[in-house]
Amino acid sequence: MTFNSMNIEEFHDVWVFAEQRGGELMPAVFELISEGRRLADEMGCRLCAVLPGADVRHLAEKLGGYGADRVLVYEHELLKDYRTETYTEIIAQAVEAFKPEILLFGATNIGRDLAPRCAARLHTGLCADCTHLDVDTEGYKAFLRRESSMDVDNTNFDSPLFDAHRNLKMTRPAFGGHLMATIVCPRFRPAMATVRPGVMKLGTYSEEKAKSVEVLAPDFRLAECDVQTDVLETVKSALKQVDLIGADAIVAVGQGIAKDVEKGLALAQDLADELGGVLGATRAVVDNGWLSADHQVGQTGKTVRPKLYIALGISGAIQYKSGMQDSEYIIAVNRSDMAPIFEIADIGIVGDLFDVVPKLIEEIRKEK
Amino acid sequence: MKIFVTVKQVPDTTGKVSVKADGTLDRASMETVTNPDDLNAVEAALQLKEQTGARVITVTMGPMQAESMLRELYAMGVDEAVLVSGREFGGSDTYATSQIIAAAIDTLGLEEGDIILSGRQAIDGDTAQVGPQIAEKLHLPQVSYAAEITMKDNRLTVKRMLEDGYMMVQVKTPCLITCVKELNEPRYMSVQGIEDCFDKEIRILAYDDLKDHPLIDKTTIGLAGSPTNIYKSFTPPQRSAGRMLSGSTADMAAETARILAEKHLI
């Protein structure tokens, strides 16, 4: 059967691109599988993972454990390293053969390289960096009641142009987080989205599901002539990456440390150590080279939701707040009582972090 | 050899942003700037020009006001500026936008040895999709997230940034590269450049200039041709402020520690 992305009734199932690097699945994949499971259950369809790579079949079980019903394995020596052109070829062939209704990618550097290319080839729509997904309209309304200022009961959710209750509703921040937009792709399939790592909740792992996952190795075509780039080397950062997303406590620093960067960082690190947490940073701190990019929180950094978030010397631009305002408990320390960060903090302390932090560490030790 | 640089004039989302009562952005109240990552792409193009003598052509799509941005790019040293503008192009999503810009670049004449440079993403949408989609439409290899670009003969060696390190990737021209801020420090406009930029020609490509290109079809451009549509837009929830502590620094620190203990956060 020929492929036409407009024949939307031919498309079924929810798919997740299972991104692996060097034979290890990216953490975002499991979040996507968990979210994909929820969507597949809402739609009453299967959840499949697409797994390209070299010698990766053994990863299928883990994908099953988080909820995949089926894993499509595409193994080839030319798929060992990520290359835009070979991976696009595989995803396009898989989609043309099996016709999924929804296709999700992690919004990693690789997902955001691959997904737009695939969408352009398949002639379908793609929504970038989503933070919330719904098919079920009642679920979408509940989300809006919780997380928007919209008057949900007096809003029309039907559309004269498409079935709003069957289409994937993809919500994402726009204009640096000042607005949220919900995007639909009503006329083409698959509906594609990249999903921001760290925002979807990880489901529980089931040994039983892991054992019963169906593994398929479909036919595909791939040849040397499909390769247009040479990967000379892949270098993993020697510095251990900070695990902002997995941390229970984050102590973040902003421009407030400027007057003595070294001391400011040392104080923040001491406080983080006291709390068993890690260091976060604003974009300005990373742009100044005071901390590496893996520490960055916010629209262009990571989205985090730790149990405890302490913001030191951070004014709180909206791009920054959008990356941390879902933290369970927020403490802000800033010299200016006008700093916008105080608008979202549970506790606000007006003061110089260089005075406050040593005292705070002292008091925390007393309380322990 | 030509280097095309795709650029976009965007509302400055890092400055004052106001949202209208209906939940849409009040663009009239906002400053516009050249998208920051695009300036890194322009700088990379100018450096490659210094090395190879290539001609640097910036291409943007937008309303006629984008002319002011293009004049600034002339003042930085680009050789030609092209504005793709037309009512028919309005409302395009990333898919439709990439079709139009790909058609424009093809119309301007993409040849063996040419390079297209784009910024990684624009600060108004943060999608990072248009660069890769232009590459797909023009059947070019792409390397995104470039933090270093070196050129030897017709090969580019690119440091592609990953979250946990980087890849060194070699690619032959013609190709498309998307640039991140670590790539370089964009230069300022030169005094002479500012003086001269008002006399430079801005080439306009309108719908009529592109309508015969195979990529341009009323069903694949503009609002009607965009695969994605906005279903709803709304303002994000405002977390409400808690309480401001008062007293001496020692008092506030003690109170904070007490609350943390009470909430079992320490």
Describe the structure in brief.
The complex is a heterodimer of chains A (about 375) and B (about 270). Chain A has about 375 residues and is of the alpha/beta class.
Structure description:
The complex is a heterodimer of chains A (368) and B (266). Chain A is of the alpha/beta class and 368 residues long. Chain A folds into 2 domains: 219 residues, HUPs (Rossmann fold, 3-Layer(aba) Sandwich); 119 residues, TPP-binding domain (Rossmann fold). Chain A is 29% helix and 24% strand. Chain A is built from 10 helices and 18 strands. The longest helix of chain A has 17 residues. Chain B contains 8 helices and 13 strands. Helix content of chain B is 30%, strand content 27%. Chain B has a single domain, classed as Rossmann fold (3-Layer(aba) Sandwich). In chain B, helix 2 runs antiparallel to helix 5 and helix 3 packs across helix 4. The termini of chain B are far apart. The mean pLDDT of chain B is 93. With 266 residues, chain B is of the alpha/beta class. Classes of the chains: A alpha/beta (368), B alpha/beta (266). Chains A and B meet through helix 3, helix 4, strand 7, helix 5 and strand 9 of A and helix 3, helix 4, strand 7, strand 8 and strand 9 of B.
How far the N terminus sits from the C terminus of chain B, by CA atoms, comes to: 62 Å
* CATH class categorisation of the largest domain in chain A: Alpha Beta
By CATH, the superfamily of chain B comes out as: HUPs
Query: For the largest interface in this structure, which chains are involved and how many residues does each contribute?
Result: A-B, 99 and 81 residues
Query: For the residues shown, what is the average pLDDT of chain B?
Result: 93
Secondary-structure element pattern of chain A, one letter each: EEEHEHEHEHEEHEEEHEEEHEHEHEEH
- Which CATH class of chain B is shown? Alpha Beta
Mean pLDDT over the residues of chain A: 94
- Shape annotation of chain B: globular
Number of domains of chain A: 2
The CATH architecture category of the largest domain in chain A equals 3-Layer(aba) Sandwich
| Strand segment tally of chain B | 13
